[in-house]
Amino acid sequence: MTRHVYRFGEGVSDGGKGDKEILGGKGANLAEMAAIGLPVPPGFTIGTPMCLLYYEEGEHFPDTLRAEVAQGIAHIELKTGKKFGDVADPLLVSVRSGARASMPGMMDTVLNLGLNDETVRGLAEASGDPRFAWDSYRRFIQMYSDVVLGLDHGAFEEALEIAKENKGVHLDTDLAAEDWQALTARYMELVEELWEKPFPQDVHEQLWGAIGAVFGSWQSERAKIYRRLNGIPHDWGTAVNVQAMVFGNMGETSATGVAFTRDPSTGERAYYGEYLINAQGEDVVAGIRTPQYLTKSAREVAGAKAVSMEESMPEVFAELSRVFDLLERHYRDMQDIEFTVERGKLWMLQTRSGKRTAKAALRIAIDMAGEGLISEQEAVLRVDPAALDQLLHPTLDPAAERQVIARGLPASPGAASGRVVFDADTAEKRSGLGEKVILVRIETSPEDIHGMHAAQGILTARGGMTSHAAVVARGMGRPCVSGAGSVSIDYKAKQMRVGGCEIGEGDMITIDGSTGEVMLGEVPTVQPELVGDFGTLMSWADRSRRLRVRTNAETPNDCRTAREFGAEGIGLCRTEHMFFDAERITSVRQMILAENEAGRRAALAKLLPEQRDDFEQIFAIMAGLPVTIRLLDPPLHEFLPHSEEEFADVASAAGTTVDLLKRRVAELHEFNPMLGHRGCRLGITYPEIYEMQARAIFEAAVKVAKSGGETPIPEVMVPLVATKAELQIIRALIDRTARSVFEEQELSVDYLVGTMIELPRAALMAGGIAEEAAFFSFGTNDLTQTTLGVSRDDASRFLTVYVEKGIYARDPFVSIDEEGVGELISIATERGRAVKPDLKLGICGEHGGDPVSVAFCERIGLDYVSASPYRVPIARLAAAQAALRRG
Amino acid sequence: MTRHVYRFGEGVSDGGKGDKEILGGKGANLAEMAAIGLPVPPGFTIGTPMCLLYYEEGEHFPDTLRAEVAQGIAHIELKTGKKFGDVADPLLVSVRSGARASMPGMMDTVLNLGLNDETVRGLAEASGDPRFAWDSYRRFIQMYSDVVLGLDHGAFEEALEIAKENKGVHLDTDLAAEDWQALTARYMELVEELWEKPFPQDVHEQLWGAIGAVFGSWQSERAKIYRRLNGIPHDWGTAVNVQAMVFGNMGETSATGVAFTRDPSTGERAYYGEYLINAQGEDVVAGIRTPQYLTKSAREVAGAKAVSMEESMPEVFAELSRVFDLLERHYRDMQDIEFTVERGKLWMLQTRSGKRTAKAALRIAIDMAGEGLISEQEAVLRVDPAALDQLLHPTLDPAAERQVIARGLPASPGAASGRVVFDADTAEKRSGLGEKVILVRIETSPEDIHGMHAAQGILTARGGMTSHAAVVARGMGRPCVSGAGSVSIDYKAKQMRVGGCEIGEGDMITIDGSTGEVMLGEVPTVQPELVGDFGTLMSWADRSRRLRVRTNAETPNDCRTAREFGAEGIGLCRTEHMFFDAERITSVRQMILAENEAGRRAALAKLLPEQRDDFEQIFAIMAGLPVTIRLLDPPLHEFLPHSEEEFADVASAAGTTVDLLKRRVAELHEFNPMLGHRGCRLGITYPEIYEMQARAIFEAAVKVAKSGGETPIPEVMVPLVATKAELQIIRALIDRTARSVFEEQELSVDYLVGTMIELPRAALMAGGIAEEAAFFSFGTNDLTQTTLGVSRDDASRFLTVYVEKGIYARDPFVSIDEEGVGELISIATERGRAVKPDLKLGICGEHGGDPVSVAFCERIGLDYVSASPYRVPIARLAAAQAALRRG
């Protein structure tokens, strides 16, 4: 027979911290504390499998559980010397939920269970405090009616208010024992009215009701939603903890408090917490009374008068300190603790690893490693890579005032202030004059890239976390708030409206890309402190990781930033971003609109020296490191003119008419550009474009090599390949171009030719394709789009609903869909390596900076990930953790 | 050592008809004819592997070949009793190419080889005909100079013209021996001038030159292009046939001819052919002299005077008849034959299976089975399913005159005449008045469906074989010419221009969707004759096939046509086509533009009875057969208004303003609608739409069942599923709706719920999805789009180039890409059946009507294919052939 009840407390412990799966987090830690001899009120845990059984049985308990629970109660009675339901000195218990993962506020709790019309009198006598006894009883009735009986709690609160009004007082504390007793009677009436039965007086009936209610709360709507949002499986179930009550509200020698063993905000090694004398736990949280500091020093720093626990209860505090140190050493992590002092005796009610800021996480990890508490590897595992994001961008000064006028999505972290501009050209112009600007658009398009570059930050009214604005901004490391739906933008009037507020061009706003807030005026920011701890952790991470980390970058600025952040090469240099440059776009358009190859070649000849310069700069910065350059990828119409002015410019440059141009533009229109005439299809149909780009790459590489700089290693990457033949044809073109440049320049450099794997067919055909490729780079953005049949630009209309309904556990554009897209990557990896064992494998989609996806890349054995510059440290840490977890 | 030379003729035969791979088609059949004792001029074949070796060796022959060729020549010398290069009575040979597949006119030939300044005199003496000898010599020099030496043949033709002018004659036949001799001398000068060397006099040098030239012609540009277009692999190579010359031009007892053993146009069992007395083979083809009929009866039917071979050479004709019958019995197929009579002796030069029209193919297959020559199964295998298309549509009367004004793609077969209209509404209006119209559009969109239905045929200026117009027209069985690039259309002026021609609304044109021709005026057509042979063959096919054949249809008309053509159910009923109906579109638009569920439900309530009627009609027609109904699939914006008038209609119906509507339309815009908010994503986000459709289906099914008709078997199909969870959610909705309809109506009907597999992820997740699905239908159109990353609507810009360059062997939207898409289908089939062995599997993309794809479906074991109504017979035949070929 499976065991379902596990005892703990006062020398007994049927479980420990390793048993979270069965006991839940709270139960496991209570058992653990009991096991290491800490003062834990005795109790028992009903394991999570019973929760599932309970639902399987149609919300009934198997008979065998009764006997086990009876043994549990007997254990508590033995240890406390009290009897459950004893009229003279009754045992009271709490009944609390406790799932494997913390679900704060989602699940139900019943306190003071075991009181009835008779035992309340025994409690009054035994405690010598009738007010306490009746207050406890009415709290119990109120809680039980709400949680177990499902009655409207408003009716009870109203009765309490009436009681206070009748007595002409405002605070609960102003009510005396008789008042509570009277209220209890009123509560009993209310229960009979609403429930149509009297309040249960049998303490066992009370207990089973509470246990059932806690299990029941697992399936409440709010709990289900919480699990969905936090990725907690529905079949985990919750445990139930039944534990002897201890009371912090039994007078001036009683107290209750919460504490962290270190400062959760800064990571400083100092006890950090609050307590209240003569109070119950919920009073600390409720905020009715102002809690007092735990330590004298904290009180002094804050300039507070209320005496600290260290001063008011020095002996208990000393005991508590001992417990803090013991728990930290035992758990080898900073602990978040709940305790109660009942008439001078300390009781531990909870311990768990404490939540902390990124800054604190970093400091605690480094400190603990320094203290010898954990190893360097463990320190690396202790910091959430995603949280590093907070450290890598300027943040708003927390002390500054702010007037939030709108909220959007936190699309690209960091804070920025600047003057509002509504188009990319103005952004560039004003920024050229030294002004800080925020580019505000309904949504952005590739045409806006130069303006996004010029701006301090970007705000859009439409678009999700993976909209053009969001993706490009993250890539550039520009703060971005996207999809601020309440903002309405009028380009003509150069005005944005939000709420009652009208903001014109040149007005100052501030955006916080980490929270999604939009604020009026300039809010001061603080610069990121990439202090010693950060560097130390990164160096430890680098020692542990196998995966190399590259960056997605194409501007000299981004390349420099990425190197500072530790990038070991470029994994994706998008040449088309260079095409948008204001000085070049006219030549690009002329090339596209040319009627024949000769026309295209004429335009390309103008672009060649410009592209060569781009690559030369990048090669110089990335000296000696591999630089993966993707040949032109997007459909040509992305580069085409929109405004009349632009049409006129191109027409005059190309010696043609605006009408003719417009017709050509219409011809180039595509229904599904994502699946259209782009990627290597351009290289197959207009080989001269790729030829120019290859020439620019090799000429630049030779130039850098000749100038005495470290010779770069260009990796020429062909996008959107679906067949071996495509790569064969284009590789021949690239090799031919390389040969002719090397002959002309009388110098050769090493280079590789490889391909993106970003179509399902390419993944399946990886064996054949590998014969032509020196490397594969998984373009997981496009691979996700095609495998799932979801356009990233259009997904917002349904993907949110999909994630809410649990159809996809996470946004597949944020974390790789391991089942679907992941299988294709695995297939390609296997088939590619079977043909070419030394095939270099990497990933260059947005997923390269996502820790969960990085772990996937480690598991399937890729060689590198490539992330946007600001996510390089995140990827480094994630790669280290993935390697360590793999062992 | 590998053998390279294979002899044939006069009792010797080193090969046979099974050796086409090595000997090529011509060589294998010459060897075969020799083997069965037919009179074949002796010769030898150099096998195809030598062709590849020749290229591998840098266009050189291995030494070993010399000895083998010498043996071959010795064989000819022995059999003919002549010597190669013999001055007295020289052996002359022909050198001809012969690949595995016929490549008419693509490859080179040299005749009369072995003549030089000395042997020509021997030939004159031995033949007793100096004119013949010198004519043969000058023909040889001319041919050799062109084919082997690569000299400009214009110069030789000019010299011949000058010779005739000088003599004042017009015809070659007017030149005498001396004239030919003089011309030969001039030719010799020409060779020295152009080649800067004298014409080779060594007959062995001549021979090797010719062999090299034949091999060389395999890599000529025109041969390469031909192979690309006809899917002939480049690495097959060609064989070379060296054979003793026989001469049909040695006087009145000599002749040459070509013949078919049955009529290749009608299939009638009668010898069919032409011959010329005193002529060489090329004279028959060249058309300088009018060939005469072979048989007396053919001559009489044609009312021709020139005597038939049956009459002029009765003995040889009797011999030829015997050979025809022998060959037909031997090859068990209608033969296409070349022969020569040299001084009363019959020589066979070629035999091969004859090309024939679809009609003839059908008749010959049925007749031969009747004659016991082939089995029923073989008869089924003899008819090309694709060719059936010719029989199933009206065709232009071949006797009628026609004025072709433009050419486009043969997008949907059949011919149609009608008055030009430029928009769907006018098409509907005029057709409603009993007029026949042709809908002419730049390109079509779903908005045009009602006009396409109303029209006799469709002509578009843009779009490929798989454009909207082409696909929909094929589905409807309407003739369509798409992508007629030379047509320019002005909607405003209601005019199309092409060449110098201006055609306005109401002008009559004719289109031929089988050839792509557009003609001015009405060209008479002939109706298809689905005569006895067709029915017989279909019944034989049905006995042999395993795959079931369903149809893609949603109108009562199409359903009826498909049943007539033998459809065994509906594999794809696209409910959205019903939404475009003029009477409903406003309700549909109101539903889409509603701001909330209540608004949508109000509009859906109006659509419910209409949809129910649709299904009722279909169920009645398809009595007792399975009907697969796909729930709404396309993105909602496809239904939205375009014109101001339409906007006004919807605004008034929905009680809103045009401005508001337009804003909503803009909101619904998608960048990549193919990957957007469509398919089951609509069902997840707006469940009420699918609920209405499910209700309409079940209510209709119950109604038909109650009315005493055969109870239909609805198969409700959920589109665009990528995850098990989607199908789970929607299946629950469908089941719930079914239950409530069955309860309301107090009658249940059987039904299935299944899904399209049209996304790569769905194929990979097929195991899980199968748990929720009773059937899978592979939507290979979309699966091809996503797997290859190619938008069908946009592919024309590069896919043509791709097929030309051999990147894809065939258009993957016409024949399934077996490597890529095919692997996903196989994966899904395996994984689905592993979970659910009785999972029903079908295909409903356009590929369901493509014979190559049907064969693939047979191989991987699908249960059915579904094709557009007019392709159902093609699919039935293709399925039978695939099953028979599998054995």
Automatic annotation (TrEMBL), chains A, B:
The keyword NADP does not apply. Residues 435-516 form the PEP-utilising enzyme mobile domain. Residues 531-882 form the PEP-utilising enzyme C-terminal domain. Residues 21-59, 65-367 form the Pyruvate phosphate dikinase AMP/ATP-binding domain. Its cofactor is Mg(2+). InterPro entries: ATP_grasp_subdomain_1 (IPR013815), PEP-util_enz_mobile_dom (IPR008279), PEP_util_AS (IPR018274), PEP_util_C (IPR000121), Phosphohistidine_dom_sf (IPR036637), PPDK_AMP/ATP-bd (IPR002192), Pyruvate_phosphate_dikinase (IPR010121), Pyrv/PenolPyrv_kinase-like_dom (IPR015813). It catalyses: pyruvate + phosphate + ATP = phosphoenolpyruvate + AMP + diphosphate + H(+). Keywords: ATP-binding, Kinase, Magnesium, Metal-binding, Nucleotide-binding, Pyruvate, Transferase. Signal peptide: none annotated. Its EC number is 2.7.9.1. The keyword Transferase applies. Pfam families: PEP-utilizers, PEP-utilizers_C, PPDK_N. One of its GO terms (molecular function) is pyruvate, phosphate dikinase activity. Gene3D superfamilies: 1.20.80.30, ATP-grasp fold, A domain, ATP-grasp fold, B domain, Phosphoenolpyruvate-binding domains, Phosphohistidine domain, Pyruvate Phosphate Dikinase, domain 2. PANTHER family: PHOSPHOENOLPYRUVATE DIKINASE-RELATED (PTHR22931), PYRUVATE, PHOSPHATE DIKINASE 1, CHLOROPLASTIC (PTHR22931:SF9). Belongs to the PEP-utilizing enzyme family. Catalyzes the reversible phosphorylation of pyruvate and phosphate. This is Pyruvate, phosphate dikinase. It comes from Sphingosinicella rhizophila.
